[in-house]
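Working notes for the structural subgroup meeting. M.R. asked for a predicted model of this chain before we commit to crystallization trials. I am recording the input and output together here so anyone reviewing the notebook later can reproduce the run.

Input as submitted:
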Amino acid sequence: MKFVPLPSSIGGMRCFRQGAVCCLLITLCGVATTCGIPHDVGLADRCADIMRRAYPNAALDITKSEASATGLTTIIARVEGARTDTPPDSPLPRDLAVECRFDENVLTGFRWTAGPTS
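Returned structure, recorded in token form:
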């Protein structure tokens, strides 16, 4: 009795198995690319995240965030926050604010409008 060795590559598989494997791989790749990517995050939330990343040593509470369109493809997002890791009588500024400029959902500008240094 002779046994046929298992194929070592997709080229050695039968046509039906090739199609099934390809469909499975396409499905897995599609699922993998969408995992962990929040699709419903607005530009104001993105700006708040950039603010936190720009000042990683500070514990921030976001107090206000807004975004408004200034053109067909340009949006300005403004975010305000307060540091929770400094006492009220600290010489460091407690209130912080940033402005982010997005053109076609790509960050093209970032500036501090209040803080982070005195």
